[in-house]
Amino acid sequence: MSSSKNKARDIFKRAVDKGDYKKGIKEMNKLIDDKEVEDEEILYNLAFLYDHYSFDLEQNERKKMEEKAINLYKKVLEINPDYYNAIWGIARIYGYRKSKKALPYAKKAYEKHKKESGNEDFAQNVASIYNILGDYKKAEKWYKKPLDKTDQPGMFANIVNFYRKTNQLEKIESYLKKGKELFKRKPKFFKKSLVGQRIKEALEEKKRDNC
Q1: Nearest alpha-carbon partner for 93 in 82, 102, 103, 81
Q2: How far apart, in whole angstroms, are the C-alpha atoms of residue 139 and residue 191?
């Protein structure tokens, strides 16, 4: 594996773990140094950083970052049309915009991921798009798809958050319980990560749940 690829992975991991996407973008661009990059993983990682950095920006700047991300995701797909994370990245950005364009991308990413991995994990990505678009019946169906076979507490946190949002608190208890059990099994470094902390927060019982 090339030295640049290793460095790019380290930059990406630090940025995601700390939630410092702006610094990650700066370091990644310095590493690339205007070279013509044809490595799908490096391009995807940079796209992901632009995509997530856009959350922190006002509308005009946010749109610029989103467009940079979309262009990079599309470049990844020119190299590898089956790169389902890049397909989902495009879906996610259209989802931010509450555009129905997100759905075909999300479902395509789900199908490609399922074919390669044999699991339903990307179903919750489709669910999140239905959720954003306000089709809660379909969102619930897709949130549930992977839950019988997954060991990821984040998937249980997702459906708990969905039920809170849609005021279906009577459905939360069993998902909270299972999510907490799975979270306990995770290693310490995961629990302390930004993602781990968000999952923990979602799985904490709140007075308003009445569970």
Answers
A1: 102
A2: 27
Contacts of 181 (CB under 8 A, 6+ apart): none
Q: How far apart are CA 79 and CA 4, in angstroms?
A: 18
Q: Is the CB of residue 114 less than 8 Å from the CB of residue 120?
A: yes
The dihedral through the CA atoms of 27, 31, 34, 37 has a sign that is: negative
Between the two ends of the chain, the Cα-to-Cα distance in Å is: 50
Give the pLDDT confidence of 11-26 residue by residue, as tens digits.
Answer: 999 999 889 999 999 9
pLDDT of residue 206: 61
Q: What is the dihedral of CA 54, 65, 157, 207, to 10 degrees?
A: 20
